[in-house]
Amino acid sequence: MRSRRIDISMESSRFKVLGEFLKSRRERLQPEQAGIPNSFGRRRTPGLRREEVAILAGVSVTYYTWLEQGREVAASKEVIESIGRALQLSPDERLHLLQLWSSEKPDVPPPGTDSVNSEWQDIIDQVAYPAFIANDRTEVLAWNRAACEIITDFQSMSDQERVLIRIFFVNPYFRNHILNWGEFASNSVAVFRSYYDRHTGDAWFRDTVERLAEECEEFGTLWRLHDIQQKKASRFILNHRAGELAFEINTFVRLNGNTDLHFCIYTPVTGTPTKHKLKEFLEAALPLMTATLVLPQTVVVIIY
């Protein structure tokens, strides 16, 4: 059987992460997409050749090769942006490339914020929809009772188990009950990869990725794509005891100035019966909570 182990030895510094990202985007881009329909020679690797990217970006082949190899070479913002255009990066990918290129990272917090203010727990408890606070590691630090009833029983888990990227990939319940699993899994890995690259050198991320890739082949496959996505609203469709529930997932970040924390709320998708089903289920499961709470008409949403 082919090993699922991921070799991330290249990803130990900002320069190496940048090089690995450039390589993944180059291999994704086909010659025809880049306007090179009649390229000569047999291609032994997918995507563009390094020299083709260099020509499109207006830089020397040696210079681009050094960047992709992770060498510590100086590059101006104009050059990096030119390479991004040559590789036809998405807006999220261009932002990620610039973040990897910049040596100044004032917004990157110390890794692994492991607690939240008690006042935030009070706020979450007043939200009628499933809500929680997580960090860049996707460790869930605070949650309300609705989250335990609809998503998973966070209360019964240890701190080490309460990691969303692991829960959604390893727990068989979610593999079988998230109806849009493929889309959700792809988005989750792309967002987590942006956190991983943001915290270059954090051993926790390295160990988590290696372990999860060994345990879940789908995660390893998605990780090797090196896709990047900034956190944005997404759909979460769950086959639950209450019936099929469709949520819009959005995320508030920079809680009290801490960019490592994300306030997440699962809000029923408008036009679906989710709001009614959720209200009935929570009234039966959480009578004390819903006796004093009225489900709002609109809520700004967010997720992990």
TrEMBL record:
The name under which this protein is listed is Transcriptional regulator
Domain named HTH cro/C1-type is located at 47-94
Q: Which Pfam families match?
A: HTH_31, MLTR_LBD
Report the domain of life of the source organism: Bacteria
The record's listing under InterPro entries reads: Cro/C1-type_HTH (IPR001387), Lambda_DNA-bd_dom_sf (IPR010982), MLTR_LBD (IPR041413)
